[in-house]
Design a protein that fits this description.
- The structure is a homodimer of 284-residue chains.
- Chain A has 284 residues and is an alpha/beta fold.
- Chain A has two domains: 8-98 and 212-279, 3-Layer(aba) Sandwich (Rossmann fold), CATH 3.40.50; 100-211, 3-Layer(aba) Sandwich (Rossmann fold).
- Chain A contains twelve helices and ten strands.
- The two termini of chain A are 21 Å apart.
Chain lengths: 284, 284
């Protein structure tokens, strides 16, 4: 049994990057929705792990959020979405939203010529999940996929606009260069932080697709379709019109490693201080 | 009770980097010694984790090796040596050797003017372990310590001699630059892979200290002093003189994540194929 519409929405990431998805959800969902964020910061990154390890970590996180009574699960991590979504849907009885399908839809809407690039972690690219989903959504599409493992630690280091970031992005992306490429999917939640340098490198003719907004829209539509939007949400009060409380006041953040770094980097991601941060043990 | 001199030596690292220490041990110890290597590749890197998490992971690894009957523990990871050595010595009854003391001794022998630089992971540098140990060993020493978090993923990516490596090393090390610096401790087992670029950046006047050899010598002396060298070792048969078997034939490698990557990178580290590789669960 999953909780009804009063339950919170679980947002699950391997670490900090999923806060880009949290932010988009907060901007898209009614203020009455509560979000529970889990970042497995003790074991980040997932993108360099083997498949069995990613699935095990994903199930442990989903069980933790299920015990906290969430009504739906948003998997904010591309690696988990690519590798563990089926396992999560078998295990968790409520709706499960990943970031790959929404990103693929956005990319198919954006491309003109049908040549799409995808960059992501080693595990995401190796899984072939983007290539399969793009081909299914738009037969005949040409996909150039490339793993860029160093971009996650670069973003975590805050080196998003210096010589090192430029050298790394250039070294990776010259492997993708083709005049036909008109759309590039940022297939990892950390990569939007490097958007400026990536855009400089690929040039203005290429649309960069960040799946956070698309994922938030899919989540809202899915909850609405299943009658699971929070009570009061039917008024569709636009965010910002409630003077009594900030929409995020009921939200709660959980991490599996010491929280100092998450507080610091997370507040930078969100543009406001992070409240209600709790250190948890997934084996509890 | 720990096993006697017939037991193997446990070599424990957060991942692949500790193979530099394994290699030095193999070159220094008699051929009759057996080594059990454990790389916690499912949770690497430790250097960006909080202290409590590093201690928990270290104890889990030590318990695993103790169950496999090792007679001594060599902690090949600087982060664990900096943060968890006391906890390991309280928990594990046999001799425990870390990499920091041997590296500090080598640095104090190498410096002429008494100004020593130390680079390492965020956790190692934040712990202050090198600064304290250098000051205790050589009062009046001047220490410049700097965290270089991106160098581990760079080495793991195999980017050790390209534009990205040069830009990263240069960006970090200009923060250490002082004409007085004559010795630089590579306070992370991954950094020797970047030795060429680091040497180019700091110039020929600076001695680079890699603690692997020093750690192997300390391990041999400690085992000898406690009567724990393997039977047959007293002959001090120099490695290479035994025609019947390679000294490493009895060694065994354990990893906590899929082993493909470890096999590939590890064989590059050692210059020979890795045999006897086993995927293990530390919670088994």
């Amino acid at each position: 049994m999953t909780p009804g519409r009063e339950g919170a929405i679980g947002v699950f990431d391997s670490g900090i990057g999923g806060l880009t998805v949290y932010k988009a959800l907060r901007e898209t969902l009614p203020a009455t929705e509560r979000l529970l964020y889990l970042g497995d910061t003790a074991r980040v990154p997932y993108g360099t792990r083997g498949d069995a390890t990613v699935v095990r970590y994903a199930l442990e996180g989903a069980r933790f959020l299920a015990r906290r009574g969430v009504k739906a699960l948003v998997v904010a991590c591309n690696t988990m979405s690519a590798i563990a979504l089926d396992a999560l849907r078998r295990e968790y009885p409520g709706p499960v939203v990943g970031v790959i399908e929404p990103g693929v839809e956005a990319a198919c809407n954006a491309t003109r010529g049908g040549t799409i690039g995808v960059i992501g972690t080693a595990a995401t690219i190796k899984s072939g999940a983007y290539t399969r989903a793009l081909a299914a959504r738009r037969p005949g599409v040409r996909v150039a996929a490339l793993a860029c493992p160093l971009l996650v630690p670069l973003a975590e280091e805050g080196w998003v606009d210096n010589d090192v970031a430029r050298a790394a992005v250039h070294t990776y992306l010259r492997g993708l260069a083709t005049p036909a490429l008109d759309t590039l999917v940022l297939g990892c939640t950390h990569y939007p932080l490097l958007k400026k340098v990536i855009a400089e490198t690929v040039g203005t003719g290429v649309v960069l697709v960040d799946s956070a907004d698309a994922t938030a829209n899919v989540t809202r539509a899915l909850l609405s379709g299943k009658g699971l939007l929070a009570p009061g949400a039917a008024d569709a009060t636009p965010p910002g019109t409630r003077a009594t409380a900030h929409p995020a006041d009921g939200d709660h953040f959980h991490v599996t490693d010491s929280s100092e770094r998450f507080l610091e980097v997370g507040s930078r991601f969100l543009g406001r201080p992070l409240a209600r941060l709790e250190l948890v043990d997934l084996q509890e």
